[in-house]
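Below: protein 1.
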Amino acid sequence: MFPERPRRPGPPPPHMIFTRPMREQPPKKKSAAMPNLIARFRNPEGQFDMDKITETAFQINKLYSEVSPMISKLKNSVKK
């Protein structure tokens, strides 16, 4: 079935009869999400764009202030 696979001589050891052979895991790729996230805050010259960073920080703060009361109400209702 797999002609290039090396064969073992003789029967398998007793502990190997009912187990599957381990397959080699392919090397894991690095996540591309983090470099893309950081790249969004850089200008065309490759330097960090402080305007984009501060604007994003203000948007996150605004979102947190809007969602925080809902989360605290939900937490209080779950405790009861």
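Below: protein 2.
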Amino acid sequence: MMSSSTKEPEPSDGLKTFGVVLKSFRKRAGVTQEELAEEIGCSSHFLASIEQGRRLPPGRFVDRCEASLDAFGTLRLAANQLTRKPGLATWFRQWALLEQEALALNTYECRLIPGLLQTEAYARTLFVNQLPPLGDDQIAAQLEARAERQLLLTERPNTAFSFILEEHLFLRRMGGHEVTMELIDHVLGLAQRRNIEIQIMPVVRESHAGLGGPMQLLETPENQWFAYAEGQRSGQLISRPKEISVLQMRYARMRAQALSFEDSVSLLERMRGAQ
């Protein structure tokens, strides 16, 4: 299930079951979603998404709910069962859990605008063009899942997000003129947030450290680093320090090769005015 190009994790029976169990213990304790969310340090929207079976519960989230609701280890047991459910691909499930608690998330893309930055119209264009074709219900479910994932940008204001995007991703005009204009406006709006840095890699560049393809890097609350690389119909979670060191070196070089944040914003503004 592709994280940035075609697919997001779909609700599985395991996720729905965990959500029902969590809701039952919350009701038993006589607390609202808002009260529990405040006690365990998350947003009520995030808690609601987990109760609805639409999000994976991070390990720390499960531990805090266990302590707060005195759940007799039931929540941990239910969470452990998720790893044995076939509803989600293992590599994406692991990455999604890490992503939800990341201190930093660095993304380089050369194929399409990353899912976290997409507008609904742009994402719909990607889903409509997917092969094999998707049905209307599938497209609607994918759009909803993508919107849920994008909440990371607002629900985690202390997470540092860095994006390096190829200039040609905007010049391609995927979806047409209006879709592209809306997309540029959306990215410019996100660039105003203190925790989001966007850099553009210009079309003309005599040296480029990212020719190996797109990549993502993240830092966990324990200050460990993981990486993720995605292909046409597969993804790879990378945990080996030597491999991550190589990708970090490449990402650092790309940050130096790309336009600065200020110059990138200026380029997008010029593209918006010229088109």
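Confidence is low (pLDDT under 50) at residues 1-10, 84-89.
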